[in-house]
Amino acid sequence: MQPNAIIAICSGVGFAWVFNFQPIRKALGRQRNVTASALALLLLSAQLGANYQSRDESDNVAVMEFGYDIVNGLPPDAILLTLGDLPGNSARYLHHCEGVRSDLRIIDLEMMTFDWYVPMLKDKFPGVKFPGDRYSLEQGGFAMKQFFDENYDNFPIFVFQHVNPQDTTWQADYDVWHYGLTHKVVRKDYVLNVQEWFNNATAALPYVSTAVSHLILLPSRAPTRSRLDRQQGDTHTL
Q1: What does the alpha-carbon distance between residue 172 and residue 167 come to, in Å, rounded to a whole number?
Q2: Pairing relation of β-strands 157-160 and 174-179?
Q3: CA 136, CA 134: separation in Å to the nearest integer?
């Protein structure tokens, strides 16, 4: 968006310079402002007419369906820790605006480093325990191991895609295992039931091939299908 803003500013400055050029000012006289406005509208209309259809993304729901595939693969009452704009915003939009999976507790790891965020979550997510008012390795903050210790026995905890790579405090006591499109946090002493894990993890991946294909095609025009069509039709498992 920054390059577009620069181009728009330069275009406006250039447009103003042309119509303030002395010979043009004399030739147009009092009609200069009217002519400039009419030409600007004509150019904008030409741009819209030439590019609207190829740039129309009103039916592109790739990001929304990506969010569906993240949240619908989680068990009830789970904590989901997100890192990055795409997974965090898509999941939170569905959760807060569309009422999808209202049982989840979706927490942004980057925003958890701000002083205002954790106090707000304490009111919004009762039962979730925060060891402090800010996630930070600096003095006065809490580390991810402390957060896991406080909540592991009360909620299933998942991360998408990563935990802060600079925070390694949890790695001696916890692992993260693939679970659908996310990773589940498990203690090192967790006893794996292979069949149960396979059933749960693959059940969290009903539409993964569609989600991945949408993301690959996102810069252009991703094909879309309704949630009902996908629920009645495809089943993609590992």
Answers
A1: 12
A2: unpaired
A3: 6
